[in-house]
Amino acid sequence: xxxxxxxxxxxxxxxxxxxxxxxxxxxxxxxxxxxxxxxxxxxxxxxxxxxxxxxxxxxxxxxxxxxxxxxxxxxxxxxxxxxxxxxxxxxxxxxxxxxxxxxxxxxxxxxxxxxxxxxxxxxxxxxxxxxxxxxxxxxxxxxxxxxxxxxxxxxxxxxxxxxxxxxxxxxxxxxxxxxxxxxxxxxxxxxxxxxxxxxxxxx
Length: 203
Description:
- 67% of the residues lie in helices and 0% in strands.
- The radius of gyration is 21 Å and the shape is globular.
- The longest helix has 35 residues.
- The two termini are 29 Å apart.
- With 203 residues, it is mainly α.
- The protein has 8 helices and no strands.
């Protein structure tokens, strides 16, 4: 339903862009129409009958569905941006999701090994620790919001170092806390994940 909703409104954006062609800068009608469409999209996904309506605690969506909804809304929102911004957002999303597919299986496998044992044992350190840490470093790096390392990627790198320190000290509770801090520091949107994700691409 969301696809047909956005598709039905796209001619309005096209007409506004044509009407303002030749003007310098971002056409005012295009900006106005885009703003209206952002508002309309928000109203659509927030309506009581919408499949994208935020759930109350007793009707909470499964984690996998929540992640799919975040990815859908993040990518769908780029349809309302100027073409240059769309291209930049799509490129960044493609890079983040590409790295996610590569490293998330190792990260989740390490997490499951830790929680399964309920402790930091030698088996985890020998088999799961290094792949998990490498994955966390790569995923933290790709989630920077600028071309070079920024405050987001530096904070995620510090989170990884804290996790490494906890593992070396074999402090299980502190290690699990550091993993949750790392997860919560991931920028909102399609990059967010759950340690017990059920998405096929994360396995």
